[in-house]
Structure formats: C-alpha cells, structure tokens
Task: inverse folding
C-alpha cells in the first residue's frame, strides 16, 4: 500500500506558493495584469513583453501596499525587464534552485492586485542553450507542462524545495517556458549597469525570398548610416550565408544579431544579379529607440 497522502501533497504545494508570495507583486498595463518578483537589492524582474514603454508602473504587493516603480531597463532578447519600486516594503529574495530534470515538479507563483496566485505542473523538457527569436543566448531550454494564465506571466517558477528555477514566459502558441535563473542574472546585471542590453545592428530591411535554388533574406531597404550600406550592400541583394553558414531567411539572420554580435566582423554571402559574392562588414549596435 502506498504511503502517498493527497492532502499532505496538496498542503506542500500550497506551502511552497505561500513562502514565495511575499516576494511577488502585480502590475497592470493598458492590456493586462502581470506578475513581478523580487530579485535582490530592491530590484524586481518581470516579463519584458508585459511592460509597455512610457506607461506608469505601480506594483501591488501581497500585503496590499501599492508603490510606484521605475523601469530600469528591458531586454527583448531574453524577455527580461527590471523594475525598481520607490520605497517598497521589505520583501524576501528567492534562492536559486538545484539542478532541474524533466518530470520534476514546478510551482508557479503569481500575484493579482495583491492576491496570491499559484499553479503547478511538471518540467517537460530540459535542453541545451538556445538562441531566442531576438538573438538572446538562453542558458537552458526549459519547457513546462502547466496550466497558467496571463496573470502568471513574469512570475517565479519554483522547484519542490521552493528554489527558483526561473521566470515564467509564454512562447509561440502560448507555450509555457522558463527563462532560467542564470540568464536572468546576466540580464539584470547588464540592465542595472546600462539600462539596456546591446543588440546587433545590420541596418537593412529584409524580406524572405526563394528564387529557384536561391533562398535567403533579400535587402529591401538600407539605413543611411547603417553597417550594411557602409559595407556596400545594395537593394535587391540576397543574403544567403553568414560566415559561410547558410541563411535561409530573415528570421535566421535576426537570431544571429544577438548581444554578442555587436562589433563582430562577419562575412556575408550575397547573391547579386545572379552572381555570388562576399561582403565583409562590422555589425553595429542597435540604436536605442
């Protein structure tokens, strides 16, 4: 006979969420309500896509206290934003989790206007480092099998000991995934220092193209002061490779323009008027918008 006790298990899940609740806060934008949580030193992290530029941010804590917060910076390449509330109440930080494996329990804590939220599921996948759609290097691929709505986005994902695995984000088709602790830590450090994370800048508007055996990213526009124009790229050029690695379209090219690409010297394979040629250029740093 199994010693498993459903009531004990239920209480354990609730206890994990309750211990994390004081570290969480909620904020509402014009479109939705999301969760943020205390990282350390009075700084909070949340999902970058939940924060709207120029909109006033007010964090509501589990105590019910509401405090205005400043947007310190945002990093679209890792989906991380950093907030700094003014005169926030003293709240705990969450401790990094141990190694996580597929099948491990995952508890997601959320906050909605000061009311604590909680849901749980399992870690569905733990994979190697990967590159986000906006060129960010993500330390581990962690996908969740969990039922979590939009109010949980930006909330902490915890293991069975209450350790912090990372932050809940939603990928394509609203698939739940985790931005790992290590990636957040790197982004927070840079955002606190600079207010932004540098992104590679080509200075060209691109469009996918397939012409017979040729497929790649066609140059549709050029920024006057961009690296692409300075290097001699022309309208109609089809970029087919990056440092001899095949590029099938703009999406692959954009993924290569991550923070670590700024300042790099690269060789682009280009098809111009049916002829193959190479163009060398130095990737710039994307201007702040």
Result:
């Amino acid at each position: 006979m199994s010693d498993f006790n459903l009531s004990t298990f239920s209480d354990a899940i609730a206890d994990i969420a309750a211990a994390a609740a004081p570290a969480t806060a909620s904020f509402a934008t014009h479109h939705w309500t999301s969760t943020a949580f205390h990282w350390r030193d009075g700084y909070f992290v949340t999902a970058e896509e939940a924060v709207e530029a120029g909109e006033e941010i007010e964090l509501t804590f589990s105590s019910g206290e509401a405090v205005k917060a400043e947007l310190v910076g945002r990093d679209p390449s890792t989906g991380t934003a950093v907030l700094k509330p003014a005169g926030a109440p003293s709240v705990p930080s969450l401790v990094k989790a141990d190694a996580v494996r597929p099948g491990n329990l995952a508890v997601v804590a959320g906050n909605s206007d000061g009311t604590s939220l909680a849901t749980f599921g399992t870690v569905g996948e733990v994979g190697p480092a990967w590159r986000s759609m906006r060129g960010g290097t993500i330390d581990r691929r962690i996908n969740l099998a969990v039922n979590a709505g939009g109010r949980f986005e930006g909330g902490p994902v915890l293991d069975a000991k209450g350790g912090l695995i990372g932050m809940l984000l939603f990928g394509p088709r609203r698939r739940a995934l985790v931005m790992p602790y290590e990636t957040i830590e790197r982004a927070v450090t840079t955002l606190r220092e600079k207010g932004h994370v540098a992104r590679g800048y080509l200075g060209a508007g691109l469009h996918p193209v397939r012409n017979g055996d040729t497929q790649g990213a066609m140059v549709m526009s050029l920024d006057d002061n961009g690296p692409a124009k300075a290097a001699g790229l022309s309208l109609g050029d089809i970029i087919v490779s990056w440092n001899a690695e095949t590029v099938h379209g703009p999406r692959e090219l954009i993924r290569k323009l991550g923070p670590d690409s700024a300042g790099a010297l690269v060789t682009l394979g280009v098809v111009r008027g049916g002829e193959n040629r190479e163009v060398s250029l130095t990737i710039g740093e994307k201007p702040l918008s």
Q: What stands out?
A: The mean pLDDT is 92. The CA atoms of residues 125 and 143 lie 5 Å apart. The radius of gyration is 22 Å. The first strand starts at residue 24 and ends at 28.
